[in-house]
Known about the structure:
Elements lengths: L2 E6 L2 E12 L2 E8 L7 H21 L7 H11 L2 E2 L7 E6 L4 E6 L5
Antiparallel strand pairs: 1-2, 1-4, 2-3, 3-6, 5-6
Helix pairs in contact: 1-2
Amino acid sequence: xxxxxxxxxxxxxxxxxxxxxxxxxxxxxxxxxxxxxxxxxxxxxxxxxxxxxxxxxxxxxxxxxxxxxxxxxxxxxxxxxxxxxxxxxxxxxxxxxxxxxxxxxxxxxx
Length: 110
């Protein structure tokens, strides 16, 4: 699979090493590049939200534990992230504490 460039407000900040594509979903690992500092805080917020969730699941066994912080961080990332090579808009950009990603793209116009 090929890598995908990740842009933050139009500036390249990293790439996704794609492990799988399935319809409108892309799975892989985020790798930061030069320019990443402009969005580091947003990525760290997503990491922290995911870590909080994982700790709560480990503590309680409740897989439906609160993920509010994580989803707020996902929304903030999604609003500013693009993957130009896909030619499609990002619907949701999930980046987890280990830098794995799960990305949902809007379906192409028919």
